[in-house]
Each structure stands twice: as C-alpha cells, then as structure tokens.
Amino acid sequence: MPLETWQEQLRRGSLDLAILLTVSTGPRYGLAIIQHLEAFTDLIVTEGTIYPILGRLTRDGLLDSYWVEDEAPHPRKYYRLTRQGEKRLAHMKSEWQAFAGKIERLMEAASTAERNGRGSQ
Amino acid sequence: MVLSDTGTSRVNGYLFVLERSLATFLPRESVRDVVREIDSHLRDRISAAQAVPDERAMLERILSELGPPQRVAQAYSVERTVDEAVVTGRLFAIVKAVWHVAMSGMSGFFAGLSLFVGYFAGGVLIVLAVMKPIFPDNVGIWVGDRLISDGPDLGWHAGVNVAAASHGHNVGGYWVIPIFLTAGFGLLFLTTRCARRFLVWWRRRRPGFTVTVRPAS
Predict the structure, then answer these.
(1) Which of B52, B59, B84, B159 measures 20 to 30 Å from B194, CA to CA?
(2) Is B83 part of the contact surface with chain A (CB cutoff 8 Å)?
(3) Three-state DSSP class for B92?
(4) Mutate to test the interface with A, among B44, B211, B212 (most CBs of A within 10 A)
(5) Residue A55 maps to which CATH number?
(6) Which residues of chain B have pLDDT under 50?
C-alpha cells in the first residue's frame, strides 16, 4: 500500500473522533468545525464533504442539530453532542489513547533495539 | 463583502445543481435542509472574504474549496445510502446502494452487474420451484438432451421446457422443488452477503472524500 493511501486511511479513520472532539467544547456550525480542524489538527477536509459526515453523525444520534436564525445575517446550522455522543466520545478517546500507547511502545522497543544493535557493532 | 449580480447568479447556479443532484436520492425535506446549510456556508465564506477587484476568482476559489456540487451530492449519497446498507443489511437498502455505486465507477458497475445476475438467477430458481406443481411435465431437471435447442449441450439442464416430451429425460420429480428453493434462496443470501462486503470495501475507499494535510508553511 502506498504511503499516501495509508495516511489517507488514517485521517479518514480519525475524522469522526476529531469532529466529536471539536463539538465537545460547545455547539458549532459547519464552517466553524472546519476552521477548528484546520487550526488544531492541520487536517483539511474538502469542505463540501464535512456536511454529509455531520449528517451521518446526527442520524447515528451522536450529534444534535438546530438552526440559529438571528446570530448572523443568514441562518446557521449548529451541531452539539448528545448524551449518546458524549458516551461514544469518551469510549473513542480511551480506545485511541490505548491504541496510540501500544504503537508508541512498539516504536520505543524498535528504537531501543536499533540503538543496542548499533552499540554492539 | 457583498456579491454583484453576476456573483449571486454563480452561487445560485451552484446551489441549483446541488439541489437537482440531491433530489435524485434524498427526500425533499432533507434536500431543502442540505441546500440551506450549504448556502449558509457560502454566505459565511463570502462575507469573511476581503473585497477584491477580481470577484470571480475569489468566488471560484470558495466554490472549489467546497467541491463541485455533484461531488458534494455524491458524498451525501455515499454517507446515506451505503451506510444504511452496511449498517442495516436490509435487502432493499443494499440493492439501492449498489445501484448508486454502479453509477459512479467501473468497480461499482461490475458489482452491480454481478448483483443483478445473482438475484436474477436466485429469483428464477424460486419461480421454478413455485411453477413445478402447476406444470409438472414442463419444469424440472433434464438429462441427456438440450433444454433449448440452440443452447450448449452440457448433458443436463434445469428450467422450463415448453416441449418437454420431445427433449431429454426429466429427473428428480417433485424433489426438484426443495432443490430449486434451496439453491434459489442460497443464491439470494450469498449475493446479498457479497454485495454487503463489497459495500464495506467501497465505503472504506469513499470516493469524493478527501482529508489532506496542510503543506508546511
């Protein structure tokens, strides 16, 4: 598998978590979510495709959406975490940390083995 | 910044194409909601943009960052139809999703074709099982001659033979009913399973969906 494909799959796999984390601090509308992702993760989602994902997360019951009419010259659709979304996010976070920890340990073990190998030569 | 009439027409044109594309698979209420949200997104982007002499270039940049309307619609269709099919496993949802995928690329087309062949063959076997008690001499498995005069001679045939008496030897009697039913439902089950697995694979690829990394500045 080419490196780019692997990177793409990694980003896709983590995007749901990134979106849920983004709205966990408070309700946000689509563009604000995109800007937050860009600012904090350097993940840039093709803008038009973030909305279908938000729609799916809403259908799955993880997000709740509502229109705010009077905040800007035009209405904005806001998304917020539901109770189910909070539970899912907590679960995803612990899974992510556990997984990242395992990969980190593997990388440390590989680095240590590499250093020892060089030292004995 | 405030758009000129030309700019407004360009945005309206974008939203019109999006609406038409979405209307092919989404309920009207959902289409209205999606178009309203994308409209809101565009207005936010435009109002945040600096007033520039070349309004057209600015607008094209904003629209290209959003993606072509057909591609945005496709992303919605992927999220809705394919996810529904994969998650629920319902036959209708799977057929609908494969049909949609079949319209979007070669792999989808061949999957759609295989699905059609699988369901058609399964359906035919079930129909034959139902027809056997009604036309006992014309439905069954024949050995030793062709079922249809211009077909290849494999040594045996199953199906409907309009001129049963003149071609081959009808074997199995009413036992062909459970055989046809098992084979028919088995084929439908297998086809559905394969279609679902294909959709899982296709969903992982998710065409029209890109997550990129900002180049180092």
Answers:
(1) B159
(2) yes
(3) helix
(4) B211
(5) 1.10.10.10
(6) 147-150, 207-209, 213-217
